[in-house]
Design goal:
Layout lengths: L11 H19 L23 H15 L6 H5 L3 H10 L31 H11 L4 E5 L7 E4 H16 L7 E5 L4 H12 L3 E4 L9 H15 L1 E6 L1 H4 L2 H7 L5 E3 L1 H4 L16 E6 L9 E5 H15 L6 E4 L6 H14 L2 E4 L2 H6 L2 H10 L3 E4 L1 H10 L15 E4 L6 H11 L9 E3 L11 E2 L8 E4 L1 H7 L13 E4 L3 E2 L4 E5 L12 E6 L11 H7 E2 L2 E11 L2 E7 L4 E3 L2 E3 L1 H9 L9 E7 L6 E8 L5 H19 L5 E5 L14 H9 L11 H10 L1 H38 L3 H18 L4 E4 L10 E5 L6 H8 L5 E5 L6 H9 L3 E3 L4 H16 L4 E4 L16 H9 L2 E8 L1 H4 L12 E5 L10 H19 L11 H5 L18
Parallel strand pairs: 1-10, 3-4, 3-5, 5-6, 9-10, 9-11, 11-12, 12-13, 26-27, 28-34, 29-32, 29-33, 30-31, 30-32
Antiparallel strand pairs: 1-2, 7-8, 14-17, 15-16, 18-19, 19-21, 20-21, 21-22, 23-24, 25-26, 33-34
Amino acid sequence: MHSDTMSPQTKIPEREEVLLRIVRELIDELHPEAGHFYHLTLDSSLDRDLGLNSLARMELLTRLEREFNRALSEQVLATAESPRDLLRHLAAAKSAGPAVKTMQAAPAELQDAADLAPYAADTLVAVLESHVRSHPDRIHLIFEPTAGESRPLTYGELHAGALKLAAGLRRNLDPGETVAIMLPTGHDYFFAYFAVLLAGAIPVPLYPPARPTQIEEHLRRHRGILRNAGARILITVPEVKTIGTLLKAQVETLVLVETVAALSGQAEACTTVPAQPGDVAFIQYTSGSTGDPKGVVLTHANLLANIRAMGQATEVTGADVFVSWLPLYHDMGLIGAWLGSLYYGCRLVILPPLSFLARPESWLWAIHRHRGTLSASPNFGYDFCCRRLSDEVLTGLDLSYWRLAFNGAEPVSPETVTAFAQRFAAYGFAPEAAAPVYGLAECSVGLAFPPLHRGPVIDRVRRASLVETGLAEPAAVDDASALRFVSCGRPLPGHQIRIVDSADRELPDRRQGQLQFKGPSATSGYFRSPEKTRALFHGDWLDTGDLAYSAGGEIYVTSRVKDIIIQGGRNIYPHELEEAVGNLTGVRRGCVAVFASPDPQTGTERLIVLAESRMRDEASQQELRGRIVNLAVDLVGMPPNEVMIAPPGAVLKTSSGKIRRAACRELYEKGAIGRAGRSLWLQLVRLSLAGVVPQLRRWARRSGEVLYAAYCWLLFGLIGVPLWLLVLLLPTVGSRWGAIRRGLRLFMVLSGTKVTVAGLDNLSPDQPFILAANHASYLDSLILAAALPVPVRFVAKAELAEQFFARTLLARLDTLFVERFDAAKGVEDARRIAAQAAAGERPLFFVEGTLQRMTGLLPFQLGAFAAAAQAGVAVLPVTIRGTRNKLRGGSWFPRTGPVSVLLSPPILPAGSDWNSVIRLRDQVRAEILRHCGEPDLATIYTSLTQMDIHRPESERGGPHDHHQPK
């Protein structure tokens, strides 16, 4: 079929495929780092979803005209909002002349069976139904209850089983009610979860009793959750059903306790309830919340946003195989393993959790048999394999297909990460497969992932500096007392993280503070708990309850806020001491709790170490106490106030294996573990006095920060207002720039801001060029205006021309205003700037196109490079460092710190065509990335637009969003 014969009657699928191929090729050129992990359909927004600005759309129209031999008017540039609009314009357009080529078929990647993700689905039910329509007989998961036993389940079978159970549920409940699921890992669990959704109800996963003898105690602990959730039905095992009457008497909303078999009806008789993206997909009760329930509300939209973000960060496809032993009542197993595998169409191999605990090698052999590429475990699982498995049970094991080994849900130990990689390297495990991650139920499951193919990064910091002042100062190589923390990577696409002080002011890099986040995966709050919900939110940000610091764009979690122990003015991190004590001979590894408990008489916090041991004779226990005391002195610089040696089972844990420090402390204070030892009054006095100086130092530092910020704003007002008036009065642009430069340099000196400028010899006063700078802070324009010895013309968004003070100042400095939202006007602005650059002007672009608060270099917009290529002038890369730490985007709290500006040698375009523009952009970006000291965020985000959709409108960018001081 020739393009000149194209008409509305031409085969629609062929036209659609060719058009989408051209769009995809263009996006791949613009964002080669994104792969195919963006959502491309005929209804994708060219701007919002695909990030095609005015210049990119102009190139797209050119390629479409050439491919389809059609003449498209410039009006298409302004009116087309999606590929479907372009298709309609092409069908209506006239032929551009004789056909010169034949339309090509869609390339193989568009037909790749590995890409099975239902991108258009907006609920979990829609995800399952999409797979059922496309490939009902494809195996979705394989359940291996015992060694050698395999029970596959197809998408069609999952849907049919869920429909049968949903038919029974519909007879017993109304849409919107909650249904608790207390089932072990198995097919019934998967049926139950989707049956509840199909019935229009809300699933509430609960962990089942491990042994029949624990049923009564187990249900007693879950009464609070069932009451808080208002559960109408409990789907469970026959053993629990036998005492269901007793449970119903204690939970007034509960009317039915039944098994899957008893509830199942006829699938064809089921009338399902349509789900909406904003409907609750399940309520996740957080670990250890049985006594004081906190049910995290998660919608379909939350879960799909998290699954897509995690898949994008890890490049998951239908060709992957996920092997999991994680419990399905826990978010890491339910969302990360099962629902993530369901979405991307990759096979899930699932083992019972008890199978792993009894025979940890079963996990690794399942990865071997199924050529698993993805798997996950809390830190203790990797440590368990290192300690428990002998070489004999691993003979012949092949882990070479395992490309990502996620380690999360509890503190990640540097020792465990290193030991597992070393131990299993002989079996094909690649060190770069180790992926420490961070997440929490309040963000669905995942929040921060490391870059692919890099492996873990371990940061060593000075102990004294961190515990006394909160500064994570890098430690010397020979510092044996250094603290070590494992990076959990960077925020997932579309999500943001910040580290703040007690007043919610964002801290600079390497300052420990409270970790907060926001993003599309974030919960709206806790179910029926308004007070807990209010405590969770800090404006738009959610509090994780964790302490952390950032360095180079990476997040390092140091401790839970509630678990941190302050003694003698020092911060003690419980997990570090717990791990070290657990390594001692005679102590049960993973069964140590370190917590603080106030002295009943003085109120002074005491450091308590509770360790499980099978030693029963007093002499052995005393010797073990001595070793623990010596270890604590060596590790944290002080002895514990009390060391308790307890029998196995004394250290309380959550369902996911985390130490319940608060519960252990409560048990200790009740005297249920053992009699508390007395602390010497002299030791109490010494510890109390030791804390005075560090506390005063901390108070002085915080007061100094507030005073410095206030001083900077006062200084800015005293210098800025007269400077603005002076710019209005001076007759020439040169004199105005001279006044601006002198005034800003005075501001830098008086504010104590050291500005270092290098590469000024690359700034030839006689050579025309375009300057391209990164954009890290509101201060960037001020810094460049003060640092550059020659006048430049800032390129600013047209909206600033609507603000009186900004318009007056910027217009007097010959600022170039550009249109962000009118595509045709944006193209015209680029041509105008190119002409001015060719005439000898020096336009200055902030080429990231927007200002954000997160550390990292964004993809670059094309405006500056298209103008340079059209004018045939060089681009001068300008790298700014330090301004983000001084004044972060979204914050008005300046801090102390140095700033540097580097002007690199100019880079000439190779030509004026599209490929030359792309090549010039990539060369300039590589130069700035090499010097800016920040991570490359282009490897995380697929387009600028995807980054913008979760930021306030005031922070969003556009084709030429080049901020000036506001």
